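Notes continue from the previous slide.

Worked example: a multi-chain complex. Inputs as given:
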Amino acid sequence: MMRIALLGATGSIGASTLDVVQRHPDRFRITALSAHRNVDALVDLCQQWRPEIAVIADPALERELAKRLRSAGVDARVISGPQGLIEAAEGSHADCVVAAIVGAAGLESTLAAARAGKRLLLANKESVVMAGNLLRTALEQGDGLLLPLDSEHNAVFQCLPRERRNLAECGVRRILLTASGGPFRGLKRSELVTVTPDMACAHPNWSMGRKISVDSATLMNKGLEVIEAHFLFDAAAVDIDVVVHPQSIVHSMVEYRDGSVLAQLGNPDMRTAIAYALAWPQRIDAGVATLDLVRIAQLGFEAVDRETFRCLDLAYQALASGGTAPVTLNAANEEAVAAFLDGRLPFLAIETVIESCLERLPHGFVNDLSSLLDSDLTARREAQRIIASLAA
Ligand code: NAD
Ligand code: MG
């Protein structure tokens, strides 16, 4: 029986994870669940799953959660705040941690799970972008296993040999990440001036949380994924390419030196990646419909429109700059996306905020968490100043 701590249980990845887990009561048990502020949703999940630990990230809600769980007859230990998330990630109640919190808020619990040697199912790409090197060190320390949930990286993982040292030794020429192109594929900049948050969140193929949906619309999601691939697979930036594939059926590919290209295909449903990572190296039922290639009929591929969607190049730039540039990129993006979702920033200004932050801030090398968090804070403050000045 694998015991699972699900961090970010009330989100989209959280729901997909619970859907897969519920299909296999003989294999998996949920021992910890976390939410940010949604006490109602967390109480419901706790009633259903009976975890040992319930974490509410906002400490101001800890007492309310404890009270609500007591009256619901749920006997879970209630903890809160960043420290509560860390405890849930590293404690002996779990063998496996699903890192499904969105944004930098997931960083410390992700690192803690890696350090504690858990089987780490990683959806929280922002933590890899911010702290790829620290995460690698933590994984070495804990001698744990990281299985990517991001569909592209999960696909690449599936297309690489099981026993691998480095990509060159495996004969890999390049990693090819596919991108749907998002809801605004084919539009020009003049058509993007007035797009709204609801339009940006209406992804053609995937149903996801609002932050990653906006990232998909700006193509920053693919930028973050290039950096994620760099750290997860030890791939140089020049060996990671992106191709637009509007159907989201080919989830990514690995090209080998002999010209072979291995791809992983499937319906756009995160439960495939989640089931793969939960059961690896075995395969289990995920509840995903059989891929009907005849109905899909055509798989299309096209180049990224880098003139219109500049965020992808900003991510490649940040990766080339190294040091804290990816931290700045991520922090500025999180602030800009939040401002866009709040109606405080136009869509096209998201990239302006990120570009200005990358230009203005130094990108020194840091190798400890507290300096990295300082850089994150500095970038957020700078981004907020720029957002305020653009709104004025
Ligand atoms: P979501 O917004 O649906 O859910 C986010 C979860 O994180 C919720 O449980 C929320 O309570 C929690 N959370 C939010 N802010 C928090 C904070 N400050 N502290 C603690 N917890 C907090 O997001 P999602 O779509 O499930 O995405 C989660 C992560 O997975 C993101 O990093 C995203 O990039 C990645 N991802 C998602 C998908 C997808 O299909 N949804 C695909 C690939 C990768
Ligand atoms: Mg992805």
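Summary box: The mean pLDDT is 97. The CA atoms of residues 76 and 343 lie 38 Å apart.
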